[in-house]
Amino acid sequence: MEKRVYNFSPGPAVLPFSVLQEAQRDLLAPARHGHLDPGDQPPLEAFDKIITEAEANLRSLLKIPDNYRVLFMQGGAFLQFGMVP
User: 41-59 burial by CB neighbour count: b if 16+ within 10 A, else e?
Assistant: First the structure.
């Protein structure tokens, strides 16, 4: 196996090998989440499950109360300069 590069600067971090293998399996066998005909909308059940579990994990780990909302935003560190409290 090729030597893995560890990125300690901002940007993508090193994923565990098991996560990379799962992503590889999903790319090669997309039917695992349901078959799509051209023009069909992707199944949202898989995404809904992922986002719901991610929010529950964040709330648990960071003790975020129910009266706060969790926002999943893209943009990285650069976005922080454009956010308004």
Answer: eeeeeeeeeeeeeeeeeee
pTM of the predicted model, to two decimals?
A: 0.48
* Residues 24, 27: Cα–Cα separation, whole Å: 5
The tens digit of pLDDT for each residue in 43-67 reads: 677 788 889 999 999 999 999 999 9
Question: Is the CB of residue 41 less than 8 Å from the CB of residue 32?
Answer: no
Residue type, 9: S
Quick one: which of 17, 22, 19, 24 has its CA closest to 3? Answer: 17
